[in-house]
Amino acid sequence: MSKKKRVNPILSTLLLKPLSLAYGAVTGTRNKMFDFGILAQREFDIPVLVVGNIAAGGTGKTPHTEYLVDLLRYRFNIAVLSRGYNRRTSGFILATPKSTAKDIGDEPYQIYRKFGKDVTVAVCEDRCKGIDELRAIDPSINLVILDDAFQHRYVKPTVAIVLTEHSRPVFSDSVLPAGRLRESSDSLKRADFGLLGSYNKWLKSPFETFYVGGDGMSGSYTYATETIGLRGYENGQFTPWTKEGY
Fold it and tell me: Is this structure's pTM higher than 0.90?
């Protein structure tokens, strides 16, 4: 049996670190352009919840999107909008009983199969266009959940929820390709909620409360996660992310 060759960590660092620095500079510049208004964000007149992460790979985004849908579907007319990764279509596609995973992607298809009777599900690469299309189809939609859209900054979220992994803390990771981060951990300052997923060792409480704008929308989290960053909409104060607890 042949043994796998191990990559020399020093050689790997020398090769990948410069690429990570370049990638980080590009994503950092893009974020600053949004921060300074050079690239415009669009704000909608209904709540928009963004669920995402800053690391490549799975951190439980779609299961948490499903949790939010289940929590709020009887109080709001919800639309779930995703990009629809790995689908064989393009542009805006509204999920219907005839839709397949090839049409809308695996995760949106899963969400539609579970909640399609109560919520609207669609996919679109351009989230602004997708929201416009959804509201044109159903003007009564009063809450949009964007799955895996933290980096899609053209939409200004009412609430941004970021999930991270306990097993791989973002504060000790690097941006691609040396690490798994899509952007610097500094970007967590944009998040209203930071949920530490895949973990329950230090769970302080099974309940967390969130607020959307000033419309009184609130709910209790019973998800096995811990809030480690929170912006309070009632007082406008922000409790920053820290390395404590990792």
Answer: no
